[in-house]
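fyi for ur records
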Amino acid sequence: MLKTGSTIVSIYTEMTPNPETMKFVANKLLYPGKSIDFPEEKDATPSPLAQELFGFPFVRGVFIASNFVTLTKTQETLWEEVIPSIRQFLKNYLEEGKAVINEELVPIKEPDYAVSADDKEVVERIKEMLENYVKPAVEMDGGAISFRGYDDGVVKLMLQGSCSGCPSSMITLKSGIEGMMKRMIPEVKEVVAEAE
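which gave:
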């Protein structure tokens, strides 16, 4: 029997370019307009959902965004063996209305870059390009990308979710993002990935 006013949650999966990650998409917002990465269980304190997902022995990483969760599994685990149980777990968890993120526990990150007056316009164009072109494409693949800095022609980005550790992420970074930035923003000489 359905409770009146309860939302029926559906979860579907999407493969990502990283064979070790899978995107689980919900018909419900989980973390509207934001994303957060938990590359290890010890990082999952701000998210009751991530903490419970790490309870599955094959889960190595959890990334939560607007309406999806990207999970990174152990190499020996086969997705076809675990997808049904993860989908059912997420469906039940979200239908019960449990907390996804405790916002007060999310660490406030200050930008770790300084922008000189000369670089201000370039950085604005870089951020605009990331926001309008790069982020939507990366989110489609179950990941996120964030601007970490700009110094003397070098753009520093951080890859999260399915992009982190993906075999094709460096190709995407160099051939895709770097190529586009160099064409559209002549001041950009190189794009590099930076660790957290």
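Helices lie at 48-53, 79-95, 120-140, 169-184. thats all i got for now
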